[in-house]
Amino acid sequence: MSTQVAITVAVAGIGAYAWYLRSSSTSGDKPVFSSFGFHSLRLESTELINHNTKKLRFELPDKSKPSGLSLTSALLTISFPKGRWFPVLRPYTPVNDLSEPGYIELMVKLYPGGKQSTHLHSLEPGDTLTFAPIKELAWTPNKHPHVALIAGGAGITPMYQLARGILNNPADQTRVTLVWGVNMDEDIFLRDEFAALERSHPGQFKAVYVVAAPAAESPHQKGFVTKQVLEGAGLSAKQSKDLDVKVLICGPPAMEKALKGKKGTGVLAELGYRPDQVYSF
Ligand SMILES: Cc1cc2nc3c(=O)[nH]c(=O)nc-3n(C[C@H](O)[C@H](O)[C@H](O)COP(=O)(O)OP(=O)(O)OC[C@H]3O[C@@H](n4cnc5c(N)ncnc54)[C@H](O)[C@@H]3O)c2cc1C
């Protein structure tokens, strides 16, 4: 919900301002995204990481500074497709360590006919793209004993940003459980990164994958993100008496609807989670 509000606010004033900034670059003493503003970044490299997802690495104007984005944040991207009157705006989530200086990395899934994902997949090194920061859930270490990350498809990127942010901070003891639903085994990316986090943080981090149409040799359970799957992953407020768990969701509208339902009727309510425990990216 917060993302939609942020986008609406940004769209309201964007026309002339974004046009003016299309070819601008920035410099200054502060990290580029430490406050709201539009900035044009140069694409440094691209890498195809599975059958439909590309990693895009953009240079920051000052190579010695990090982006200035806080945990958790997204970036609103703005493009000006040929033949269209209006700019296209969509949020994407940086997946690099936010403290690393000099660059940001996005992982972008290509949707057939998708306006922005098609544009982003067409970019070549040297091209530029305009960004503005969006603050998402402001994460406070150890505020909750346990966080449940429930993702569908490309909704994994905010979850990865948060999981690595928590687990890379030795002072943050929050337990993290990730449940990620995808269509096919080939849709899973960041597998090695999540496996490394499980190895380095046994007992603190667990990742569970659910595949709608798994291959015969798939190691993952078949299906969708259901009540049974979440219970199997240890995500049930009723069973665990884990009253202060925070539940974060990012995925297609159908998944979100099934989980949140209307007026406390969804899967999460059945598992004993209150609406105030749940946040949607
Ligand atoms: C906070 C936030 C962070 C995000 N971070 C990322 C990220 O890091 N990487 C990433 O790849 N995407 C991310 N997204 C999704 C992204 O913003 C776009 O919605 C997505 O790239 C599709 O935009 P498009 O212009 O290509 O498609 P559109 O032109 O908007 O839509 C074309 C068609 O694609 C399909 N489609 C579009 N979006 C979805 C969807 N989410 N699920 C299923 N089908 C869809 C629909 O059938 C639609 O009709 C994020 C979204 C949010 C809200």
Automatic annotation (TrEMBL):
Domain FAD-binding FR-type: 36-148
BP terms from Gene Ontology: ergosterol biosynthetic process
Binding site residues for FAD: R90, P91, Y92, K109, K115, S117, T157
Enzyme Commission numbers on file: 1.6.2.2
Cofactor(s), by name: FAD
Any GO molecular function: cytochrome-b5 reductase activity, acting on NADH
InterPro entries in the record: CBR-like (IPR001834), Cbr1-like_FAD-bd_dom (IPR008333), FAD-bd_FR_type (IPR017927), FNR_nucleotide-bd (IPR039261), OxRdtase_FAD/NAD-bd (IPR001433), Riboflavin_synthase-like_b-brl (IPR017938)
Cellular component terms (Gene Ontology): mitochondrial outer membrane
Localization terms from the record: Mitochondrion outer membrane
Catalytic activity: 2 Fe(III)-[cytochrome b5] + NADH = 2 Fe(II)-[cytochrome b5] + NAD(+) + H(+)
Membrane topology: Single-pass membrane protein
Domain of life of the organism encoding this protein: Eukaryota
Keyword list, A-Z: FAD, Flavoprotein, Membrane, Mitochondrion, Mitochondrion outer membrane, NAD, Oxidoreductase, Transmembrane, Transmembrane helix
One Pfam family from the record: NAD_binding_1
Purpose: May mediate the reduction of outer membrane cytochrome b5.
PANTHER family in UniProt: NADH-CYTOCHROME B5 REDUCTASE (PTHR19370)
Assigned protein family: Belongs to the flavoprotein pyridine nucleotide cytochrome reductase family.
Name by which UniProt lists this protein: NADH-cytochrome b5 reductase 2
Organism: Corynascus novoguineensis
